[in-house]
């Protein structure tokens, strides 16, 4: 259903996905979607925790979740998932916003917002934005309550002050400065020890999108202001310094999320159809580590080698996810012990359900507890690869550097994916068979 600006329509599905799509190109700015949960009375957020975006990807209620970007030939989509049944009673509106990095929305062609039924994939509403010019942030649309039911309104209201200006207008406390005081240590609960069975290791004021009551008293701020900074690694700019970003302590969360592309072609078509039929794709996020004392090892689900945050290797794998779409696979690094690391190579293997990474869209996100979020896409796999090196974290002695690898490797016959990535990066470990 195509809508004009200002039009509204009922939303009958209880779980929806709101997608912002656009055409990509060399001069097109990077676009990010976000959501603000607004109080019924004040029309503002109750606290900074009511802002869902790339650095704060899930609301505490579980009602709204940032799902991340998907890329395809000439197109990109960023989306949030909304479970309307879980939206707290005091929330009257969920504003869907977008920001353009490195340019304005006048340079973003083919911009549209779609609301789809999360269960069936059916399109419930669509709004195509065609009149953007100098805006660097955009209120694309909003989900709102009306007489006990939910509706969607196409807004298309622009801001020239970016995401920070938009967020501030709705009561978000934005922190653009680096904290001066040293950050607190990691507080994650220690994991139980588990044997590793697979290795032997040695600006203008914006106009509100709809009438709002007079603002209430400012909401109580959350424990720390929202940080909007983000770094996207590319082939042309593959590295970033965690030291310069202020992210050398606390917990570093590494997330891998994926989904199967909807269009299958070429030799990857058999893989795509197999995944669609069986739905049992299992990718494993892993990490090779080398510590400052020379010891080496692996953290992975295979062999229950989940690691630990509070003793060597200071790395912990949260679990083994087989869906990829919502939480994906997560790995945590205790950067309070960054001086104990020489290097960490984060990689992923196809454990079962596919013969390679072809026809998968995968995104890697690194979220330091302090400093800017880092993300990148793996791009298209064009070789029969079952193991991909994702990112290399290196301690140079004076700097802690993250490098995008996105390196698809092809194991030789009879050689395991782990041994393949070990050989490619010179880890020199002894490997034995294992299972999970």
From TrEMBL:
Protein origin, superkingdom: Bacteria
Domain TerD: residue ranges: 1-170
Signal sequence, renumbered to the chain: none
Pfam families: TerD
InterPro entries per record: Stress/Tellurium_Resist (IPR051324), Tellurite_resistance_TerA (IPR017115), TerD (IPR003325)
Low complexity: compositionally biased ranges: 188-202
Biased composition (Pro residues): 203-222
Region of interest called Disordered, as start-end residue ranges on this chain: 178-226
Stated family: Belongs to the CAPAB/TerDEXZ family.
Protein name (database record): Tellurium resistance
Species name: Streptomyces tsukubensis (strain DSM 42081 / NBRC 108919 / NRRL 18488 / 9993)
């Amino acid at each position: 259903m195509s809508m004009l600006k200002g039009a509204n329509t009922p939303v009958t599905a209880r779980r929806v996905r709101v997608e912002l799509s656009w055409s990509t190109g060399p001069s097109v700015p990077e676009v990010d979607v976000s959501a603000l949960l607004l109080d019924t009375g004040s029309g503002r957020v109750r606290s900074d925790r009511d802002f869902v975006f790339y650095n704060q990807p899930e609301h505490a209620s579980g009602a709204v979740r940032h799902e991340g970007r998907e890329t395809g030939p000439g197109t990109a989509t960023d989306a949030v998932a909304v479970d309307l049944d879980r939206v707290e009673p005091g929330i009257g509106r969920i504003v869907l916003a977008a920001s353009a990095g490195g340019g304005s929305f006048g340079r973003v062609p083919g911009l549209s917002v779609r609301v789809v039924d999360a269960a069936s994939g059916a399109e419930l509403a669509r709004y195509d934005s065609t009149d953007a010019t100098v805006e660097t942030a955009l209120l694309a649309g909003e989900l709102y309550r009306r007489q006990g039911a939910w509706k969607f309104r196409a807004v298309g209201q622009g801001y020239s002050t970016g995401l920070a200006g938009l967020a501030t207008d709705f009561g978000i406390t934005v922190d653009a400065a680096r904290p001066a005081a040293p950050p607190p240590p990691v507080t994650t609960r220690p994991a139980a020890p588990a044997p590793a069975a697979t290795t032997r290791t040695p600006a203008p004021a914006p106009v509100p999108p709809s009438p709002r009551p007079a603002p209430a008293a400012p909401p109580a701020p959350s424990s720390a202001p929202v940080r909007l900074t983000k770094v996207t690694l590319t082939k042309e700019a593959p590295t970033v310094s965690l030291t310069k970003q202020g992210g050398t302590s606390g917990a570093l969360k590494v997330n891998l999320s994926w989904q199967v592309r909807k269009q299958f072609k070429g030799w990857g078509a058999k893989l795509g159809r197999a995944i669609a039929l069986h739905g049992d794709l299992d990718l494993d996020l892993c990490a090779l580590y080398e510590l400052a004392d020379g010891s080496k090892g692996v953290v992975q689900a295979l062999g229950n080698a989940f690691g630990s945050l509070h003793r060597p290797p200071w790395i912990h794998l949260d679990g083994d996810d087989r869906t990829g779409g919502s939480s994906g696979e997560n790995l945590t690094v205790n950067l309070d012990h960054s001086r104990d690391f020489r290097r960490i190579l984060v990689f992923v293997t196809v454990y079962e359900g596919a013969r390679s990474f072809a026809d998968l869209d995968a995104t890697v996100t690194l979220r330091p507890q302090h400093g800017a979020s880092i993300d990148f896409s793996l791009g298209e796999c064009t070789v029969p690869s079952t193991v991909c090196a994702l990112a290399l974290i290196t301690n140079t002695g004076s700097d802690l550097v993250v490098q995008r690898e996105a390196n698809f490797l092809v194991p030789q016959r009879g050689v395991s994916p782990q041994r393949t990535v070990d050989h490619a990066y010179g880890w020199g470990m002894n490997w034995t068979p294992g299972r999970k």
